[in-house]
Amino acid sequence: MQILKIPFQRPDRGTSSVLETLNVDTGKRTVLREFSDTIEAPNWTADGKYLIYNSEGRIFRYEIAADEVTEMYTGLAVECNNDHVLGPRGDRIAVSHRTIEDGLSRVYILPLVGGEPVLITPIAPSFLHGWSPDGKTLIYTGERNGQWDIYSIPAIGGQEKQLTNNPALDDGSEYSPDGKHIWFNSTRSGLMQIWRMDADGGHQTQMSFDQSNSWFPHVSPDGKRVAYITYKKGDVESDKHPPNKFVELRLMPAAGGDFRVIADLFGGQGSMNVNSWSPDNQTIAFVSYKLKK
To answer: Rounded to the nearest 5°, which phi and psi values hold at 88?
Structure first.
């Protein structure tokens, strides 16, 4: 059978990127660096010295103190998207990379210092979102038979396990720091809302209740707070998270309860797809965008 090779085409978003941090307690917002191209999804390293982000299919490391950018060597994984997660020991990174043969996303793991990636999810499409605190399991969103659900798989590879089974879109899964829960977002209530379940998929519980569409819950390292991104109702379809929209960054207690808005920005897709909490629980990193003239 002949394999059809699908060319990759990146649309010009017409935006420049601003890498920022925000102290969630004081509200202080700091611009670290501006980029003329599109960067996405900063991860904070465990030592607090670097932010890892993706741009044009590649993975980059930004050294905060030196204001220096270094491209990471990722071997064959040169079509990485904004679904990348650092391992709990800080020595590995898992990425979602679109394979050339079919253009579908699969999950790979490679050393954080750079190296050849190892395929973890042969079934595609699979979009990575979380890594268990004990380092043994990855969780991701996969489309199987026309339905998008959350799956887990051993970090060494193996058989995937389906954790949700719902005709609605379930996405954005991430472990709590103690490994007991998985936070995610789902359209099963009609709008995209924040949910939580046990690590084995049990007790799926809605955690946000408002007339907005909320995505990508990220739990602070101490497990006490959850940051996420919100689109205004009517501004987007509930199952879409496009770029170039006016959105809010929100914070809610991990135990549940009222949220508060901690920032307004022009962004959306790419702003905060992955966990970007600083190790000291005080700051989150994100990307805002500016329309090019």
So the answer is: -65, -25
State residue 4's pLDDT score: 31
For residues 269 and 258, what is the distance between their CA atoms, to the nearest angstrom? 24
Check residue 173 and report its DSSP letter. E
Q: Which residue has the higher pLDDT, 230 or 5?
A: 230
- Each as own residue / partner, the long-range contacts of residues 61-68 (CB below 8 Å, 24 or more positions apart, any chain) are 62/19, 62/32, 62/33, 64/32, 67/32, 67/33
Q: Which among 91, 11, 12 is positioned nearest to 52, based on CA atoms?
A: 91
Q: Residue 128: pLDDT band by 50, 70, 90 thresholds? A: very high
Task: With CA atoms as reference, report the closest residue to 53 among 29, 71, 77.
Answer: 71
The pLDDT tens digits for 89-104 are 999 999 999 998 899 9
CA angle 95, 239, 269 (to 5 degrees): 45
Question: What distance in Å separates the CA atoms of residue 97 and residue 76, rounded to the nearest whole number?
Answer: 9
Q: Dmax of the chain from CA atoms? A: 59
The CA distance from 278 to 40, in Å, is 17
Quote the pLDDT of residue 10. 52
